[in-house]
Design goal:
- It is a single chain.
- The protein contains 9 helices and 15 strands.
- Helix 1 crosses helix 3.
- The longest helix is centred in the first third of the chain and has 28 residues.
- The chain is elongated, with a radius of gyration of 29 Å.
């Protein structure tokens, strides 16, 4: 069986236009060429796809089935050609990226200039937002997400790990003391990255032992930066991602507490690149993804 893309194109175009003449005009070839390609396809697969008479052209039952496969095959060939072309060409164009606000400011925005310096023909459009959006509908090339459960219908590529820390300022600890067991958290004003009521429950793990503590959230915010500032001001005990507060901990402005316990949040401990499958065919996206994996890996 010897089937060419010219044959498939002729069949798909004839099916869409229900006219050999119209298909020939669309393809920029003669009417006889389209007829020959269609006949060659039918001869190759030993099946009649199109029923012809003097007045109109219709698909046979076999043609109805074969049309969908032919159309998918042409799309796959086009994507493969584009992928190979991208491998040979210098990446160009705009990469639209979305990322969480805090991680984007503390981590991602610091390395994007390095990427742009090494890819002078690529632009980056960075959209910092904590809301999870429909990346296909919004025309986003890549979403960098802090999530424990990436979408199953998209391509998910792990990029880097981070952790969470429970901490407080020296001033707060000096005045109010510090918790020595998870249960002690219930007696302190606590603060964390908050979105819904269930975020008032802090989940802690110590090997096989797990505890869930309902904390008294005196101050709620949907951004870790706000919680960081409140912790530095001595407002209470904070649960923060380490990328947000590692410098303050290193400088002694914040002190980790309950260090034998590991916080477990619904956001997980991983930054994942999420893309629609067709976005992986663009060389600019491949280059940006490769850079992130190398830089953070």
């Amino acid at each position: 069986m010897n089937i060419s893309t010219d044959m498939l194109q002729a069949f798909v175009k004839v099916t869409e236009r229900l006219s050999v003449s119209a298909a020939a005009r669309d393809l920029g070839v003669g009417k006889g060429v389209v007829s020959k390609r269609l006949a060659a396809l039918e001869d190759s697969i030993k099946t009649t796809l199109v029923s012809r008479n003097s007045r109109k052209l219709t698909l046979t039952p076999a043609g109805l089935i074969y049309f969908e496969f032919a159309k998918s095959a042409l799309i796959a060939v086009q994507q493969a050609d584009e992928g190979l072309r991208n491998l040979r060409e210098e990446p160009t164009g705009r990469v639209r990226v979305t990322a969480p606000v805090s991680w984007g400011m503390h981590v991602l925005s610091l390395v994007i200039p390095e990427f742009l310096a090494s890819h002078p023909l690529v632009e980056v459009e960075l959209l910092l937002q904590d809301k999870v959006i429909d990346i296909e509908q919004e025309g986003i090339d890549m979403a960098l997400r802090m999530t424990a459960s990436p979408a199953l219908d998209l391509v998910s590529i792990p990029l880097t790990q981070f952790s969470w820390v429970i901490c407080a300022s020296p001033a707060y600890i000096g005045t109010s003391g510090q918790p020595h067991a998870p249960a002690d958290l219930a007696h302190h004003p606590c603060m964390n990255y908050w979105r819904v009521l269930s975020d008032d429950d802090w989940h802690l793990s110590n090997g096989t032992e797990k505890q869930v503590i309902k904390v008294a959230n005196r101050y709620r915010a949907n951004n870790p930066e706000a919680i960081l500032n409140a912790a530095l001001a001595g407002l209470g005990i904070a649960l923060l991602p380490t990328y947000c507060c590692s410098r303050e901990i290193a400088d002694g402005q914040l002190i980790p507490v309950l260090t034998d316990w590991t916080p477990v949040t619904k956001f997980g401990t991983q930054i994942t690149a999420v893309l629609a499958p067709d976005r992986l065919t663009f060389s600019r996206n491949q280059a940006f993804l490769k850079f992130l994996k190398t830089r953070f890996g």
